[in-house]
Design brief:
The protein is α/β, with parallel strands linked by helices. It is 35% helix and 23% strand. Bound molecules: fructose -6-phosphate (F6R).
């Protein structure tokens, strides 16, 4: 989705803005632009396409100057083209604005401005801000910024430049996150932490309806009532290393390989093996509350929703609480019955996904107890929920989620075990799982070391135009996730199904040209999965089987086997998804696709 960067200081702004745009580009974008103050005017350059292609076209002489704003746009209002790219400006080019989010009353505001003689140059809602700001501006940017908060409804983060304020940037925040980075005789504005790392030492997170006036030497923050507010700063702790590719050709491959370490850190920090307990004291759910819950609703989208399928399985099976996984955008369509004995868990990498946020608001309004299972604690969803369970995956840059998924599975299993503990479930399961947890990072490493088997399967499926992914029970979500990874990065049409569904329709698709990937590892569903595999074989379908080491039937049943180590069936989804991630990665690479930034997708989906 859209990204914001702003710079004011002693250096040339353009290289900082270009680097910022590059670092924000993981969010997904179709165009980018900058505005720079120079000699009493604002110079704007905007283009469509990738920053690698755009940056060489942006002339450092024409765009010389030490204060500027930049943006990556993912089209919502108006097609992706140059007029609709940001910065947007007024006709006299006295104000330049970059914007994340949406003005909900933009049609009414546009109509009013048009009636006053404004001719808009773009289809964006953003252009409205430029005119409204200029009309309210009398030399002091604060009242003009407050006027925007008064007049415009919706969720937005803005960075603004005015031609009369050479080294000043104005930041406005409602709903969408916005940060001010504090450097040495330079300051920055950014919509997330990445462009600030290495440039700023500390950060201010703007609060709801706050305005910041940023110059190279000062940052002043004002509340919606116009009064200056005291703000707290916090040091930046993301290491530089987290934002490089570490020698991998793509972020996605790097992130797939980070899984063992991330899993180890999460489980080691939460499982007290000596005392046989899971420690989740910080999520704000007492034993008494756990015992009172009558239902759990898990809400999320995409990959996070697939994690919820597993979450519902373990919360019901292990903690003994009726649990269901629901797509967040469907939540409000069904009028869920809510009260304080319902636990609503919003699962989200970014913590910014609008559909999940809207669903969580329904839960908050309905009086449910709410929990965010998140990778970004200080996010919109993190602030809304009663508590947060941090999955600690570290920044995920590739648009397709991988390490975040396995961390979500681990976090949800920990949650189920904790709930089970509080509700008096049999302690034997945790005792059984402790050794499984201990070897889980190595089990994932073993699969990573077997990249060659995924490579062989990728060479096999690379020319397919359709694929099926099947799994059952605890691995039903694995099948859906395998299919999603394949379609989003390789553009092969792939469908994931709980395997029992095959006979009820999808089996009609089976043919030699449609490879089927089936997850049939050791566990209670293996026998039934093998039945499904035989049905596909009987119809001449090609089978790629995810099977447990030592399974003697697997080579007889499958055209290709993706071997995985023998693990406890309850943690098997964490291991079983890894060969599917590698298969999707390698297939996309062989097909020449842009693995890290697939077409039409955005990392953070902040629109409904
Ligand atoms: C797919 C993917 C998406 C996200 C979904 C929710 O690889 O990453 O399906 O899982 O957009 O995003 P978050 O987790 O940020 O709420």
């Amino acid at each position: 989705m859209c990204g914001i960067i702003g710079y004011t200081g002693g250096s040339q702004a353009l290289p900082v803005l270009i680097q910022g745009i590059r670092l924000l580009s993981y969010r997904g974008y179709d165009s980018a632009g900058v505005s720079i103050w120079r000699d009493g005017s604002l110079t704007v350059r905007k283009d469509q396409g990738r920053i690698e292609d755009l940056a060489p076209r942006w002339d450092p002489k024409e765009l010389a100057g030490t204060a500027g704003i930049g943006h990556t746009r993912w089209a919502t209002h108006g097609v992706p083209n140059i007029p609709n790219a940001h910065p947007q400006f007024d006709a006299a080019r006295r104000v330049a604005v970059v914007h994340n989010g949406i003005i909900e009353n933009d049609l009414a505001l546009r109509a009013q401005l048009e009636a006053d003689g404004v001719t808009f140059a773009s289809d964006t809602d953003t252009e409205v801000f430029a005119y409204l700001f200029e009309r309210a501006f009398d030399g002091d940017p604060v009242p003009a910024a407050l006027e925007l908060l008064k007049t415009c409804h919706g969720a937005f983060a803005l960075a603004i430049q005015h031609v009369d304020l050479p080294d000043t940037l104005i930041a406005v925040r409602r709903g969408s996150p916005l940060l001010v980075g504090l450097g040495v005789r330079e300051n920055l504005i950014a919509s997330d932490m990445r462009p600030l790392v290495g440039r700023a030492d500390a950060v201010i997170e703007l609060g709801e309806d706050q305005v910041a006036i940023v110059t190279p030497d000062s940052v002043r923050v004002f509340g919606a009532d116009g009064r200056e507010v005291e703000v707290s700063t916090r040091p930046i702790d993301h290491s530089e290393r987290d934002i490089g590719k570490d020698g991998y050709p793509h972020f996605m491959l790097k992130e797939i390989h980070e899984q063992p370490d991330r899993i180890y850190e999460l489980l080691a920090s939460r499982v007290d093996a000596d005392r046989g307990v899971v420690r989740l004291d910080d999520i704000g759910i007492s034993d008494e509350r756990w015992r009172a819950f009558e239902r759990v609703d898990l809400i999320a989208c995409g990959t996070a929703f697939h994690a919820c399928l597993y979450g519902a399985y373990v919360l019901e099976g292990v903690a003994g609480i009726p649990a269901r996984a629901l797509m967040a955008h469907e939540y409000g369509e069904r009028a869920p019955r809510l009260d304080e004995n319902v636990l609503v868990i919003a699962v989200s990498q970014s913590g910014e996904t609008m559909d999940t946020k809207v669903a969580l608001q329904i839960a908050v309004d309905g009086g449910a107890h709410t929990l965010g299972v998140l990778n970004v604690r200080e996010s919109v969803i993190g602030r809304m929920a009663d508590g947060v369970l941090d999955i600690h995956a570290g920044p995920e840059i590739a648009v397709a989620s991988t390490k975040v998924y396995t961390q979500m599975l681990c976090a949800l299993l920990l949650l189920a075990l904790r709930g089970g503990q509080a509700r008096g479930a049999d302690g034997a399961l945790l005792a059984e799982l402790v050794p499984a947890f201990k070897k889980l990072p190595d089990d994932v490493r073993t699969v990573l070391a077997r990249f060659d088997q995924a490579r062989e399967a990728a060479r096999d499926v690379r020319r397919a135009s359709d694929m099926l992914f099947l799994g059952r029970g605890v691995d039903a979500g694995t099948a859906l996730e395998g299919a999603l990874k394949m379609k989003e990065i390789s553009y092969i049409h792939a469908e994931g199904y709980p395997a029992g569904e095959m006979k009820h329709g999808p089996i009609a698709l089976v043919s030699r040209e449609v490879p089927t990937v089936a997850v049939a590892t050791r566990g209670p569903t293996r026998g039934r999965m093998i039945g499904n595999v035989r049905e596909v074989r009987a119809r001449d379908g090609e089978i790629i089987l995810v099977a447990t080491d030592g399974d003697q039937d697997a080579p007889k049943l499958a055209d290709l086997v993706l071997w995985v180590p023998d693990v406890h069936p309850l943690v098997a989804p964490v291991v079983n998804v890894v060969p599917l991630q590698l298969l999707a990665y390698e297939t996309a690479r062989l097909r020449g696709c842009d693995v890290d930034q697939p077409r039409n997708l955005a990392k953070t989906v902040t629109v409904q």
